[in-house]
Amino acid sequence: MTAINTTADRPAPKKQKINQFRRLLWHINRTDLGWVTKAALTTLQPGARARRVALLDQLPAKAEWSEASRKLDRDGYVDVSTLMDRGLAEAVATVADNKMSRLNEVSDKQQLGHKSFWVSLLDEDLVNGAFATDHPFVRYALQPAALRIIGDYMHDLPQLSDVLLTLSQPTPNQALSYSQLWHLDHDDKRVCKLFIYLTDVRDTADGPFTFIPAGPSRPFRNTLKSHMNDATVFAKTGPDAVKEMIAPRLSCFIVNTARCLHMGSRIQSDHSRLLYTATYIQQPRIYPEPRPRFRAAGALTDLERAVMRL
Ligand SMILES: O=C(O)CCC(=O)C(=O)O
């Protein structure tokens, strides 16, 4: 009898095997075993970390920044409203207000639209997917206080991975989805997000950024489940561990979103929330570097170039 060669009998094509390997690595990297990947990649770049630490050491230091850094390390979050440069925050707010005054035009230019409650408003500022380094959103993220606080926590000069402006809006009668559910960020092993509220977040109806500090979030670190509802989370932590960031416009805070379980943007009818986010990771990235997110405009220091990998 002639044997029929089914797909299952044939050896998996090389590309498929690579994809399976990548998928496995992706799952592994989401657990504490990802630290092994991180350590292995770090040893492949001898001297790189020492060079970055030497740059970090060039930054000014202040006792209150060190205190903030220790809190970030201990609890996974810190309120930095009094530590960040107010003028730079005002410049971010001016850009944001301009976008809001042209909301329909700006949201039409948005590339990614999968989250109905969440509109990204910066796509029109990108050239080949990259922000100019003199953009107020980038200047805010590069301020010494931010780099020092996050850098001292990481014991390394942070890499600025992205900047975002998001408008969260109500989605009546829709089930909660994506970042409205509890999750950890797995972009890398250390992911610090610096947020600025660009609208007042007065109560739960404004959809505050909501999180569980690093300690009580620990039991969720190695779970393969990615987005969880309140019942699943509270069964382990109880609701008392939850912190809601209720704060006025221009408040800013840093959260290690790889350590602190978090969710937000559960906006009630007639409310909305405008949020700036700068995301930092520690080099080397555990996944392949995406295409450059920043393009040089104006003079840049060696330190700024290193932070943006330019
Ligand atoms: O919209 C929110 O408050 C949640 C944002 C979030 O999950 C994130 O930035 O990782």
CATH-assigned fold name? Jelly Rolls
Report helical residue fraction.
25-40%
Please report the distance between the alpha carbons of the first and last residues: 63 Å
Average pLDDT number: 91
Give the oligomeric state of the chains in this entry, treating copies of one chain as homo and distinct chains as hetero: single chain
What's the CATH H-level homologous superfamily? q2cbj1_9rhob like domain
- The low-confidence parts are 1-8
Protein name: Phytanoyl-CoA dioxygenase PhyH
Organism: Bradyrhizobium stylosanthis
Concise summary:
With 310 residues, the chain is α+β, with helices and mostly antiparallel strands. It is 34% helix and 15% strand.
Q: Any key phrases for this structure?
A:
310 residues; alpha+beta; Jelly Rolls; three-stranded antiparallel β-sheet; disordered N terminus; binds 2-oxoglutaric acid
Mind explaining what this structure looks like?
This is Phytanoyl-CoA dioxygenase PhyH. The protein has 11 helices and 11 strands. Helix 4 packs across helix 8 (144-154). The protein has a single domain (45-308), classed as Sandwich (Jelly Rolls), CATH 2.60.120. With 310 residues, it is an alpha+beta fold. It is globular. 34% of the residues are buried. It starts with 13 loop residues before the first helix and ends with a helix. The structure holds 2-oxoglutaric acid. The site of 2-oxoglutaric acid has 11 residues, from strand 9.
